[in-house]
Specification:
Order of helices and strands: HHHHHHHHHHEEHHHHHHHH
Family: Belongs to the UTP6 family.
GO molecular function: snoRNA binding
Largest sheet: 2 strands, antiparallel
Strand order of the largest sheet: 1-2
Structural class: mainly alpha
Radius of gyration: 27 Å
Shape: elongated
InterPro entries: HAT, TPR-like_helical_dom_sf, Utp6, UTP6_N
Organism: Sarocladium strictum
Number of helices: 18
Protein name: U3 small nucleolar RNA-associated protein 6 N-terminal domain-containing protein
Oligomer: single chain
């Protein structure tokens, strides 16, 4: 334990100037300073122990955040300048703890996510980019990290970089459609944003880039490794299956933006993947139909339904999508809802007769019926849905 004691003492000595300033300014008393040192010493020994866990680092960091929040509160009450050197060192200490934690446990996804969330909170843009790149290198098959990277770029206005992240991530996360679906959702959000800005007559560059917040554009070809401040982005293995060929990638990046071609292209490329099923197509359908405010939404939805009819005719997921389509994202309190519900019930009766798996369709139908019954409904509509539920159960 001698080595652990020496390392713990070294890290504690680095915080001495900060503690002295806190005592001199009257932010913390001598007894409180003594307790802070003891607490830090306990945590340091815990995280420096060879058998430490990610939870130990998370607990240590959370305690430091609580201490920082208490310090900020007392500074405000005592009217002490917030821009002290000790204040800066407090944030630096938390960042250093995160660095040490992820270096000790590079495979801990929760710790990486906490680190990235804190960097976004304190608006450390450059460090966020570097940390995100390191996280993706350590866990290239983590869907949530690729989604976070793509969303961060899209939120900062750089949709080209967002598409680059999603496309590269799809090469690694090729076991299911999770990342593809989030990519489609991001594209729909972007279309909605562009449509709203056009209505407000606000000019907006489709490839706008915010130098302070954007993430770097990831290269699409296998020989482009992508580099962020000297840190290489993850690269698929040479023998890995080619998820997105050059033609599909070009289609995704060069399709007209406002006519819905890119979400359609995402869906079409996903259809070629081995994991694609009727349930996957239904997930795309649910996402696209939720954006009823988009003028191009009917075109996108019609394309998905056409593909499902072609690839999975009379499949229960295909039938369920046709049944639910008129009601998706429609408020039950609107006057249009009863009229659409009449169409839905007629379609449901028809699809029950022709589906290839009646039991699965029954389960899917009961799911959306129960969802409406849990909400506040007009009594007449509730009566109709309850009767429909009984008919489905008896069929």
């Amino acid at each position: 334990m001698a080595g652990v004691d020496d390392k713990a003492r070294l890290h504690l000595e680095r915080s001495v100037p900060q503690l002295r300033e806190w005592e001199e300014r009257g932010i913390f008393s001598k007894d409180e300073i003594r307790n802070i040192v003891k607490k830090r010493d306990d945590y340091e020994h815990r995280v420096l122990n060879p058998s430490n866990r990610p939870a130990d680092w998370a607990s240590y960091i959370q305690w430091e955040k609580s201490l920082e929040a208490l310090r900020a509160k007392r500074c405000k009450r005592l009217k002490i300048n917030q821009h002290l050197s000790s204040n800066i060192s407090s944030q630096g200490r938390i960042l250093q703890l995160y660095d040490r934690g992820v270096n000790r446990h590079p495979g801990s996804a929760p710790l990486w996510h906490e680190y990235l969330a804190y960097l976004a909170q304190v608006k450390a843009s450059k460090r966020f980019r570097n940390t995100m790149t390191n996280a993706l290198r350590m866990m290239p098959t983590n869907v949530d990290l690729w989604v976070l990277a793509g969303r961060k770029s899209a939120d900062s206005g750089d949709m080209a970089a967002a598409r680059g992240f999603f496309l590269r991530g799809c090469r690694f996360c090729n076991k299911d459609a999770g990342l593809w679906i989030e990519y489609a959702r991001c594209e729909m959000d972007w279309l909605l944003k562009m449509q709203q800005e056009q209505k407000n007559k606000k000019p907006h560059s489709m490839e706008k880039s915010d130098a302070q917040n954007e993430l770097s554009l990831v290269g699409l070809s296998d020989d482009e490794e992508g580099e962020e401040d000297g840190v290489l982005m993850p690269k698929p293995d040479a023998d890995a299956p080619q998820v997105v060929d050059s033609q599909s990638a070009q289609q995704l990046l060069s399709s007209p933006a406002m006519d819905g071609a890119i979400p359609i292209a995402v869906f079409d490329v996903c259809r070629k993947q081995p994991f694609f099923t009727s349930a996957t197509a239904a997930s795309f359908f649910d996402i696209f139909t939720a954006y009823r405010a988009l003028t191009v939404q009917p075109r996108i939805t019609a394309h998905v339904l056409s593909a499902m009819d072609e690839q999975y005719p009379n499949d229960p997921y295909t039938c369920d999508s046709h049944v639910r389509e008129p009601l998706i994202a429609l408020n039950p309190s609107t006057a249009e809802f009863p009229r659409k519900l009449k169409v839905v019930l007629a379609t449901l009766k028809q699809k029950m007769q022709c589906t290839t798996d009646k039991e699965v369709l029954k389960g899917l139908s009961l799911k959306w019926i129960d969802g409406y019954l849990e909400a506040e409904l007009d009594e007449a509509i509730r009566t109709v849905l309850e009767a429909t539920k009984k008919q489905v159960l008896a069929s």
